[in-house]
Amino acid sequence: MSLGRAYSVAVAGIDGQMVEIEADIGRGLPGVHLVGLPDTALSEARDRVRAAAANCGEQWPDSKVILALSPATLPKVGSVYDLALVVAVMDAAKQIKPDRLGDTVFLGELALDGRLRSVRGVLPAVLTARAAGWQRVVVPSAALPEAGLVGEIEVLGAPDLRRVLSWLRGEAELDSPSPPEPADAVPGPDLSEVVGQSEARWAMEVAAAGGHHLMLTGPPGAGKTMLAQRLPGILPPLTDAESLEVTAVHSIAGILPIGRPLVDHPPFVAPHHTASISAIVGGGSGLAKPGAVSRAHRGVLFLDECAEIGTKVLESLRTPLEDGEVRIARRDGVARYPARFQLVLAANPCPCAPPREADCICPPAARRRYLGKLSGPLLDRVDLRVQLHAVGSSALMGEAGESTEVVRARVAAARAAAGARWREFGWHTNAEVPGPVLRQRFRLPREALAPLEKALRLGVVTARGADRALRVAWTVADLAGAAEPSRDHVTTALGFRGRGLR
Hints:
Elements: E1 2-12, E2 15-26, E3 31-35, H1 40-43, H2 45-55, E4 64-70, H3 82-92, E5 104-106, E6 109-110, E7 116-117, H4 122-131, E8 136-140, H5 144-147, E9 154-158, H6 161-168, H7 198-210, E10 214-217, H8 224-234, H9 240-253, E11 268-269, H10 277-281, E12 282-283, E13 289-290, H11 292-295, E14 300-303, H12 311-315, H13 318-323, E15 325-330, E16 333-338, E17 342-347, H14 364-371, H15 376-379, E18 384-387, H16 393-396, H17 404-422, H18 435-441, H19 446-457, H20 463-480, H21 487-497
Parallel strand pairs: 3-4, 5-8, 8-9, 10-17, 10-18, 11-14, 14-17
Antiparallel strand pairs: 1-2, 2-4, 6-7, 12-13, 15-16
Helix pairs in contact: 2-3, 7-8, 7-17, 7-20, 17-20, 18-20, 19-21, 20-21
């Protein structure tokens, strides 16, 4: 009886857990038995790994082989364990040197001819290995750019199984990741291309400076989609930590570009208005996959024609908006994904949506019912609401407005002021600050709070709406270069909550 070991990583959501793979070669009829709650893809690995080893010229044990994946109670999903399974069997058969196995993690799927194929979730798997104190990780060569984003751990790549086994025998060397190339500035749509709509442009600037949610209503062709598409351009670039978070989610979703995997700009995600709850929040069979709210993490989630989206789909956004993450329970476990995004809603004022409001043929009840899908609790979480109007000929033929670069500079200055103020608390934007902190520790003078107190007495805003108005007031003050919000700043913030649903 011979026993071998190798190690891999099980990824659930963006969290990972180390998996120990034991191979036992004992007496009995030839065959491979896999235990440890494998799913269908992993169960099929018995034939894959045996064929891959044979086609690479390796001697597969001609007896009973038991492969156990621990922890035994953790569901194992996918083909990421293929390489580690073969290594464990070769270790049990005494065909490789065991000196490198104790500090190395193996990731990758095997083709029948022994080629190593990349898998989803390589980045979070490498991050898990580093956090667990492992010294080295071996991945497919195609995944080297992605795995190489993680520092403080040795990352090696191999094109096939033959190279990995030769390395374990001390006969060959594996590839190392190349230094990442500096990211090129990707020119996006410029804000100067949007004509007119000065109020909406100002709201966009406030939303970007404070990380606030935004709703745009207006007739078709007024510029709602154009404005939303230009919001990521005026947001600051992602920090190194944020880039790894976003890249990890995109790795699990399988949407990373080949060769340049690092996501260093705020993503922009715009699902169709017929998308389901699973497509928006995340879901699927087995282990839940990330949805649009997670793919938009640290970026913008744009829901165009939001009045056409199902009510249940819209209501599913309430928890991510408050918590900044989603937890989805499925058959193979609970997946946790970050979902701290900026929501931009866009809607027409009525079902018929004529270019001119005077041409509307909808009865008043139909107009109310159309936007009635947006519940009060959901709208209460939207800080800025703006009504757009049809663009006149003077604006269309007039001079272009400020460019993205000019607005982005003001946004960066406002964010820097907010970051310096909240740094000791661990917050980065005004939208992240809890209401009790603004009402108690950073309480404004009574004169400045007078408009907010009046709105509360009249029932114009809720307690949650008052907290959100205070956050917007701090953002308006940051853009103005003020030390704290004044009465005018609070009035401006309250005005944003009363627009857009007339």
